[in-house]
Amino acid sequence: MEKNIAVIKGDGIGPEIVTESMKVLDKVAEKFGHKFNYTQLLMGGCSIDANGVPLTDETIAACKASDAVLMGSIGGDTTTSPWYKLPANLRPEAGLLGIRKALGLFANLRPCLLYPELAGACPLKTEISAKGFDMLIMRELTGGLYFGARKTEEVNGVMTATDTLTYSEDEIRRIAIKAFDVAMKRRKKVTSVDKANVLDSSRLWRKVVTEVAKDYPEVTLEHMLVDNSAMQLVKDPAQFDVMVTENMFGDILSDEASMITGSIGMLPSASMNETKFGLYEPSGGSAPDIAGQNKANPIATILSAAMMLRYSFDMVKEADAVENAVSKVLKDGFRTGDIMSEGMTKLSCSEMGDKIAENI
Amino acid sequence: MEKNIAVIKGDGIGPEIVTESMKVLDKVAEKFGHKFNYTQLLMGGCSIDANGVPLTDETIAACKASDAVLMGSIGGDTTTSPWYKLPANLRPEAGLLGIRKALGLFANLRPCLLYPELAGACPLKTEISAKGFDMLIMRELTGGLYFGARKTEEVNGVMTATDTLTYSEDEIRRIAIKAFDVAMKRRKKVTSVDKANVLDSSRLWRKVVTEVAKDYPEVTLEHMLVDNSAMQLVKDPAQFDVMVTENMFGDILSDEASMITGSIGMLPSASMNETKFGLYEPSGGSAPDIAGQNKANPIATILSAAMMLRYSFDMVKEADAVENAVSKVLKDGFRTGDIMSEGMTKLSCSEMGDKIAENI
Ligand SMILES: CC(C)[C@H](C(=O)O)[C@@H](O)C(=O)O
Ligand SMILES: CC(C)[C@H](C(=O)O)[C@@H](O)C(=O)O
To answer: Parallel, antiparallel, or unpaired for β B158-168 and A158-168?
Structure first.
């Protein structure tokens, strides 16, 4: 098969980690007889430097014309980088929010699991981590507070700022369906997170998710308040299979969940629209402090490429091959600095890419 | 001194744990020559049962007429209790939100610390918990999404729900001042949590907190995004002294922080207005599953009473006496079921109250 991939290397460690993913994808192409065409595009800080804006119409059009988007990371150090002197709508993050909306990427999938080989990095105590955990957070990505009307204005001489949290039943239904669909392929449990004891949007959320559940009699649905969810993730992460929630709650909880794995450098993510089209990126940030030093962990990005093969290209064997190669390399004791532990062999970013490619 | 205390025992384990706190307060009164007059009031589920509403004007008036409010917990099992068949504005939680607003309790103080004797209950691994941690979360309690306009309506045939997140600079300033004031009495560090890369309300938050910081040159101010904060709490809780944030973020992060102590049954809270008036309650919930069994841990409520002595009554020696009595009882190996471990002596709720009172 021939596939066109839009590649956004982005800022910080983005270029390094994406380069290693392309190395692995090229090996997959060679091995399985595919052809991947890459179109490199700017977004975020590098786009600000080149074009004065974090996201151009050309980048959006080129992404739309492709079969999937592979992304590194965007943004810089918020206290020192000149990008953060710009008005909010011209900063790197505005590019990220803009592309999510422009491509209709309403479903953000973040698998958070404890790799047995890396259990030592888990910040939780052994009684908890020994049970292992493997959950997928399904975050709504184009609604809620992130995309509601906002304004800052003087009200009776006092500066007042307002953001708006809106969800329609249609927006809730489509993400709920994605959550139940993916739960059917996993352990058939959905935990829907809301704050229904306070928010109208959460009450509508709970109602619609409950309706959607009727079409999935095999899936167990549970509702959990967001404050309790923040506790349960630490107390007993093994209880979760698929967690579905709105944009802001998903932002907070998915970061908490990725931290409890202890190896955020391992966690991929996919942001999908209604079709098979998606944008794939690592869960971690642009890590400007180690950028350009060939030290970053490329595995999250390589596993994001695997998700792309699986979800956008229906290349199941190929995705398995990448994931197995990653497992093999970990079992063989190879580590980047962030996941290094005693007795293991430390590799640079590019060496890790080589090792994984070799194992395809 | 003579003080009038409004007592809201509430639902679930509320009556048991408040009874033990009153036992301890009575011992304090005897020992230090004070007089505490209690006025028992209904709120939450018990008020619904008696009056049809979770909060009456009488309860509000009696609270206002008192020097402080001591509360247990309110609410029941949200899936089985008939209270949760009622419209949202008549449920137990509406009483809690109502009293916060009616009494102007805009500052919620939640100390989260790891008791050395209970470090074994901490869900984090020893490398992290061995450093210990002792932070105070200052949550804004009467603004933001909790109290903004909300509506659910049909828009072009589609049900749509909206909540509103509004903060004025005055609301931000007064909570920031509380945070810096308390930091001056602690380790002089404030971490202000927001989502300034997305929300207007967060950008105003950051601006005002930065302004307030100028009046506290000795205090170190740091800004942290809410998603990162959810990670840092798990990764390295020792880094935090005072964390100040808006209502919803505070709800989520304070629950996460209390869970990482591993002993939520130990954590008190205070909700204050601009004066010395406050409402004091344990951080945990009403635990309907163990209500009436004399099993609950009364320590969080007893420590809440100690906060009342300290913050509302300026009774420093008395507050110290209560806190020291709790430490002594823990050192002597006494535990309620929730914090029980091998080799310790298990006490019931009332026995724990007795033990602490004895040690005053
Ligand atoms: C950069 C920021 C706007 C973004 C978000 O909050 O969505 C990031 O934190 C993420 O989770 O992808
Ligand atoms: C019951 C609920 C409305 C309340 C809140 O979210 O404020 C509770 O969770 C709390 O934190 O006191």
So the answer is: antiparallel
Instruction: Kindly give the residue spans of alpha helices, DSSP state H, lying in A214-285.
Output: 226-235, 247-261
Helix (H) or strand (E) holding A201: helix A200-213
Its pTM stands at 0.96
**A36 lies in which domain range?**
1-108+266-360
Pair type for strands A278-282 and A150-155: unpaired
Q: Is residue A117 part of a domain?
A: no
Backbone angles phi, psi at B70, to 5 degrees: -110, 125
Interface of A with B in 288-347 (CB under 8 A): none
Return the number of CB contacts < 8 Å for A and B: 176
Confidence bin at A78 (pLDDT 50/70/90): confident
Tens digit of pLDDT for each residue in A247-295? 999 999 999 999 999 889 999 999 999 999 999 999 988 999 999 999 9
Task: Please report, for the domain that includes residue A238, its CATH number.
Answer: 3.40.718.10
Nearest CB neighbour to A260, from listed B91, B234, B251: B234
Would residue B255 show up in a list of annotated catalytic residues for this protein? yes
Residues B93 and B198 in one domain: no
* CA distances in angstroms from A284 to A279, A281, B164, listed in the order given: 15, 9, 30
Which of A210, A243, A261 is the endpoint of a domain?
A261
**Of A3, A9, A195, A355, which residue is the catalytic one?**
A195
As a whole number of angstroms, the distance between CA B355 and CA B360 comes to 9
* Mean pLDDT value across chain B: 96
Identify whether B113 is part of a domain. no
Compute the half-sphere exposure of residue A304: CA atoms within 13 Å on the CB side of its CA.
39
Any domain includes B30? yes
CA distance A307 to chain B (A): 24
Residues B139 and B164 in one domain: yes
Report chain B residues whose CB lies below 8 A from the CB of A146.
Answer: 198
Distance CA B220, CA B323 (A): 28
CA–CA separation, B316 vs B321, rounded Å? 9
Residues A131, A252: one domain? yes
SS (HEC) of B6-69: EEEEECCCHHHHHHHHHHHHHHHHHHHCCEEEEEEECCCHHHHHHHCCCCCHHHHHHHHCCCEE
Domain boundary among A218, A237, A261: A261
Residues B91 and B149 placed together within one structural domain of the fold: no
Residue-level pLDDT at B71: 98
C-alpha to C-alpha distance for B360 and B356, rounded to whole angstroms: 7
The total number of structural domains in chain B stands at 2
> Under an 8 A CB cutoff, do B200 and A152 touch?
yes
Q: Are A43 and A8 in contact (CB under 8 A)?
A: yes
> Quick one: B256 and B301 in the same domain?
no
Contact residues on chain B for A45, CB-CB shorter than 8 A: none
Pocket test residue of A55, A93, A142, A246 for ligand 1, highest count of atoms within 8 A of CB: A93
Helices (H), B103-246: 126-129, 169-184, 200-213, 226-235
Nearest CA to ligand 2 atom 4: B93
Q: Is B114 inside any structural domain?
A: no
Instruction: Say if residue A215 is in the same domain as residue A302.
Output: no
**Residues B40, B149 within the same domain:** no
Same domain, A236 and A133: yes
Query: By percentage, how much of chain B surpasses pLDDT 70?
Result: 100
Interface of A with B in 180-209 (CB under 8 A): 195, 197-201, 203-205
pLDDT the model gives residue A334: 97
Q: Say which of A124, A164, A230 has its CB closest to residue B230.
A: A230
